[in-house]
Amino acid sequence: MGSGENKVVLHGMWASPYVKRVELALKIKGIPFEYVEENLRNKSPQLLKYNPVQKKVPVLVHNGKPVCESLVILEYLDEVWSTGPQLLPKEPYQRANFRFWAAYIQQLLESIFKLFNADKEAHEKPLQEVHEKLRNLEDGVKEFYFPEGSPNHISAENLGILDVMLVSVLGPFRAKEEAFSVKILDPGKNPLIFSWIQALIELPLVKEVVPPHDKMVGVLQFLKQSGFKF
Amino acid sequence: MEETGGVKLLGFWVSPFAQRVKWALKLKGIQYEYTEEDIYNKSPLVSKLNPVYGKVPVLVHNGKPISESIIILEYIDEVWKQAPLLPQDPYERAQARFWAKFAEEKVRQSVWEAVCSSGEEKQKAVKSAVEAFEEFEKELKRRGTKFFGGETIGFVDIVAGCISYQLAVHEEVGSIKILDSSKFPAISEWIKNFLNHPLINEGLPQKDQMFAYFSKRSKEIASRKMSHKTA
Fold it and tell me: Residue limits of the GST N-terminal domain (chain A) (predicted)?
């Protein structure tokens, strides 16, 4: 595959979990790409041209043609770069199962956002919702993803869509906990998810993608203070 | 290889999500056994087959359950290759997935939110719905084909298709007006063509029954919202 024939540009924003998904997927699949950092308060004309409907990041531009929506982009990457590491399994039932849990991890992120949006005094209910989703996730993936009961198989060579989704949502979990003074991920309550994300964030490939802790705490606190709705 | 394993669908008569799956199965000529679930009185089977959400539709194929309507559609398309729902080309597939997500989250959801809310919240939801319809109209016009999928019904048509037979009822229940046919000629034409297909129109719920159901359901949701606010 000649590199001249496959120009890939990712328009993103360094703190966006949706962008992180695509970034990590590109690295896992070994796809060379150019990254364009967007200032979301001053969006580039290119971004507005490539995503006129949503005007959001991430946008993947492949040979001049844009693909939008993080999960849509991940499926596109798997279909175009169909040899080498695959994000989804081949068998249809397993694919459906992985898509289900990938979508559930997105639900987890939405619950975390609800938590961020709540006033400090009203943390209890949204936090309970996050913990419930973590429990469901743990119970749901245990059987098929961690049959030995621990993330021993996690390595840079076999990362897939669920790892990508988890990194995007929980990669910076300590920064989220610090910024909002909440305990999101308790190793006592969710031992499997805790050890899973720990194994992931140790990988050099993942370290390149997860935003630096202090920078993340800073941006989350800044956004909260300015009344941003996550 | 022709799949001969048993196909079962658990659904609810008025669910737009279950209807999507029915359409896909019918368009591909797949025989299936249908079980009606009353969502106010679900059988234990629903929580057994969909422990995470406890909802319908659930497709059961060779004894294995699949939940979430759009995920079910992708599964059906992958297992049964006749009458493909998604295009072959990866870029076109990505566009279809984008517009299906848009149809579900921006078109269908905002209409329902408008029906179930009041005051300022309702106005906001109506505005969102109209904006979504405008994007949808633009895209349909740009494609210039009978359906989103081209000359035959495809993935986006099936996901968006619930508006063809439920939107008018929702507008009445919610006292809102979104689909002005003079403002949305392409969508109006699309709805006509979509409902003209015998497999699409077959067995759709009756208007008066839908009106009664959505009136009741939207009031339940509206009062739940109010109790959350005052709690």
Answer: 6-85
Domain boundary (B79, B107, B126) is at: B79
Q: Please name which of B29, B34, B32 lies closest in space to residue B81, comparing C-alpha atoms.
A: B29
pLDDT in tens, B40-58: 999 999 999 999 999 999 9
Identify the domain containing residue A58 by its residue range: 8-80
Nearest residue on chain B to A102, alpha-carbon basis: B71
For A146-191, the DSSP string reads -TTSS-TT--GGG--HHHHHHHHHHTTHHHHHHHHT-----TTT-H
Q: How far apart are CA A223 and CA B106, in angstroms?
A: 25
Q: Are residues A110 and A140 in the same domain?
A: yes
pLDDT digit string, tens, across residues B162-180: 999 999 999 999 999 999 9
And the tokens for B74?
A: 């992708």
Q: Which residues of B touch A (CB under 8 A)?
A: 52, 61, 64, 66-68, 71-72, 74-75, 78-79, 90-91, 93-94, 97-98, 101-102, 135
In this predicted structure, what is the pLDDT of residue A1?
Answer: 45
Picking from A46, A80, A114, the residue at the C-terminal end of a domain is A80
CA separation for the pair B202, B196 (Å, rounded): 10
What interface predicted TM-score (ipTM) does this complex get? 0.96
Sheet containing strand B64-67, strands side by side: B33-36, B7-11, B58-61, B64-67
Q: For residue B1, what pLDDT band results from cuts at 50, 70 and 90?
A: very low
Q: What are phi and psi of B35, to 5 degrees?
A: -120, 125
d(CA A11, CA A222): 23
Same domain, A64 and A123: no
Percent of chain A with pLDDT over 90: 91
Identify all chain B residues contacting A68, using CB atoms and an 8 Å cutoff: 98
Number of separate domains in chain A? 2
Sheet containing strand A65-68, edge to edge, reads: A34-37, A8-12, A59-62, A65-68
